[in-house]
Design brief:
- The chain has eleven helices and five strands; from the N terminus they run βαβαβαβαβααααααα.
- With 211 residues, it is α/β, with parallel strands linked by helices.
- It has a five-stranded parallel beta sheet with strand order 2-1-3-4-5, with helices on both faces.
- Helix 7 crosses helix 9, helix 7 packs across helix 10 and helix 8 packs across helix 9.
- The longest helix has 15 residues.
- The termini are far apart.
């Protein structure tokens, strides 16, 4: 099985490489960014991608869907510290080729997921418990931090993640993480919906938006 590690975090990547090195028939390599990931999938489209959704260079579920449709033989393990139940439900509706695994999952679960991923979708126990739990009342106030508010305004004004990072003297991954947190807090799925929120909230003047 060919595994592509799309995880910029050195410690978790090293841990996953250790697990893979102790499993038979595992051929693994790393992808530093989305461009490299696409190149590797073009060479080996039947790979399994272990993807840190929070930190890797992927914007949202829409982009994951595009990638899954383009590489229809690829299986995906979404490997993260935390994922919302809403995000996972929407992702599972996109394709049955997405499996869910938390980074604090047991070694047994990690090995089990790698063993089963090519045959069926795998969802780790903690995520299953979250999905099956009664829905909790949503808080009325989902406050954005000052940084998130500033980044939301930049998004609404049409700046790309790279442009926002350059403007703020931050890394692409830092701004991308803020962007995902903003979308999660607002319950939006794309830039268009986030922009509508910013306009309704008065964060962006209509005249400024249309310049």
């Amino acid at each position: 099985m060919n595994i592509i590690l799309a995880d910029p975090q050195d410690i978790t990547r090293a841990g996953m490489m250790y697990v893979l090195s102790n499993m038979d028939g595992m051929d693994f390599r790393q992808a530093e960014d989305k461009t490299e990931l696409i190149l590797q999938l073009s060479e080996k489209p039947d790979s399994v991608v272990v993807l840190d959704y929070t930190l890797f260079d992927v914007n949202d579920i829409d982009e994951l869907q595009i990638l899954s449709e383009r590489f229809s033989q690829t299986r995906w393990i979404i490997f993260s510290f935390e994922l919302t139940s809403d995000f996972v439900r929407r992702l599972m509706a996109v394709s049955n080729r997405f499996s869910i695994l938390f980074k604090d999952s047991s070694l047994r679960e990690i090995r089990e997921c790698l063993f089963l991923v090519n045959r069926q979708r795998y969802v780790c126990q903690r995520m299953m418990e979250i999905l099956l739990a009664p829905a909790a009342p949503q808080e009325e106030d989902l406050h954005l931090t000052r940084t998130e508010t500033e980044i939301l305004k930049d998004i609404a004004l049409g700046l790309t993640t790279k442009e926002i990072a350059e403007r703020r003297f931050s890394s692409f991954h830092t701004v991308n993480t803020h962007r995902k947190n903003i979308f999660r807090k607002l319950g939006v799925n794309n830039v268009h919906e986030a922009t509508r929120y910013a306009l309704r909230a008065g964060l962006v003047d209509t005249a400024e938006y249309y310049i």
